[in-house]
Amino acid sequence: MIAMPIYEYRCRACSHVTTVLVQGYNAPTDLSCEECGSGDLKRIISQTNYHSSPADRLSSYDPKARQTEGFYRDSRNIGVHAEHMLNQAGVKPTEEFRNKLEKLRTDPSSVIKDSDD
Ligand SMILES: [Zn+2]
């Protein structure tokens, strides 16, 4: 799984649930029920993989997958590739590496400022 919101819509006409993988952050428009073709759909809030833990993110990370723009916009995905490569090499990330990642993920601008000094 890659970081991609999943939207679900229930058809008001036939109750069929249509699942939509969303590219980027824009909700799809002009949806119609895949069962009966009705355009009267109600969005249901479903879980997205944005709720996954850092460990889940790392274990589900596929370096060969082409990541969506949304993946890179999500600062929590910063460093997942680096972590993955370290794991592959059997290297345990140092405390400093982890701290830096944490900082990058929570406040990217502060790190950019730091490296300018
Ligand atoms: Zn329907």
Description:
There is one protein chain. This protein has 117 residues and is α+β, with helices and mostly antiparallel strands. It has 2 domains: 6-44; 52-116, no CATH class. The chain has helices at 54-60, 69-73, 80-88, 95-106, 108-116, and strands spanning 6-11, 17-21, 41-44. Strands 2-1-3 form a 3-stranded antiparallel β-sheet, with no helix packed on it. The chain is elongated. The chain starts with 5 loop residues before the first strand and ends with a helix. 7% of the residues are buried. Residues 11, 13-14, 16, 33, 35-36, 38 line the site of zinc ion (ZN).
Oligomeric state of the chains in view: single chain
Order of helices and strands: EEEHHHHH
The parts where pLDDT drops under 50 for at least 5 residues are none
Q: Could you tell me the strand content as a percent range?
A: 5-15%
Computed Rg: 19 Å
Q: How many β-strands, per DSSP? A: 3
The profile of the biggest β sheet is: 3 strands, antiparallel
Give the neighbour order of strands across the main sheet.
2-1-3
The helicity comes to 25-40%
Mean pLDDT: 76
Shape: elongated
In this entry the ligands are: zinc ion
- In angstroms, what separates the terminal alpha carbons? 38 Å
How many domains in all? 2
Q: Given the helix and strand composition, which structural class is it?
A: alpha+beta
Q: How many DSSP helices?
A: 5
